[in-house]
Amino acid sequence: MFIIPCYFKRPVDLALTFAGLELHTRHGAAFIPWQDVSGIGLMLFAEDWCLGLILSSYDNFLNNMTPEVAQDLKGSAMVRRVLWRRLLRIGMYWPARKARRLWSRLARKRDLAAVLKGLGEVGDLAELLLISRESSGYDLLFTRFDLDRPTRKMEALMESYRRSSVVNPLGVRP
C-alpha cells in the first residue's frame, strides 16, 4: 500500500513563483529565474502536447546544480530520454557558437565536448539542453505527466507569471 503513492509520484515537481520556476526532485531543486526564460510554447510530440521553455542563458540554471539533481532532471521525462537517444543515434550535435553563448562555462573553450564530459551529470544535462534546442526549438520539454494541469493551461499560467515578473523602467508591473 505504501509503494503505490510513491510509484505514481512525478520525479520532478514544478513550482511557479514570482521570481521564477523551481524544479524539485528527490535530491534537491533547481531554479530558473523568469528573466532567463525567453519563450514558452507548445510542441506536438508523439500525438501529445508538450510544454517547452526557451532559456536565454543556462548560467543560473546549471551553475549551482548538484550532479544528483542534474541526473534526476535528465531522466525525468520520457520525451527527453527518447529524443536524446534518437538524436545521438543519428549523429545530431549542437553548434558550438550557440553553446558558448548560452553557458558562460563554455565561453573561450576549444574542446566543448571534453569540457561537458568533465562536468559529469551537469555537463550531460547541458548537452541534452543544447540538443533539445537544436532539434525542437526548446531547451526544456515537459509532458502532461510532468504537469499538474492540462498543458495549455500550464502554458498560460507560466506566461502570466513570466509577464508579471517583468518590471518596466518606471518600476510598474505590466
Tell me what you see in this structure:
With 174 residues, the chain is an alpha+beta fold. It has one domain (3-165). It is 44% helix and 21% strand. It is built from eight helices and six strands. It has helices spanning 3-8, 59-62, 67-74, 78-89, 96-102, 112-118, 120-136, 151-165, and strands spanning 13-16, 20-25, 28-33, 37-45, 48-55, 140-142. A three-stranded antiparallel sheet has the order 1-2-3. A hairpin with a 2-residue loop joins strand 4 (37-45) and strand 5 (48-55). Helix 6 (112-118) crosses helix 7. It starts with a helix and ends in a 9-residue tail after the last helix. Residues 1-8 and 168-174 have low confidence and may be disordered.
What is the helical fraction, as a range of percent? Answer: 40-55%
Individual helix count: 8
User: Using DSSP, what is the number of strands?
Assistant: 6
Structural class of the secondary structure composition? alpha+beta
Largest sheet: 3 strands, antiparallel
From the spread of the alpha carbons, the general shape counts as: globular
Q: Pick out the low-confidence regions.
A: 1-8, 168-174
Q: Work out the strand percent.
A: 15-25%
Q: What number of structural domains do the residues give? A: 1
Q: Output the strand order for the largest sheet.
A: 1-2-3
Determine the oligomeric state from the structure: single chain
What radius of gyration results from the CA coordinates?
16 Å
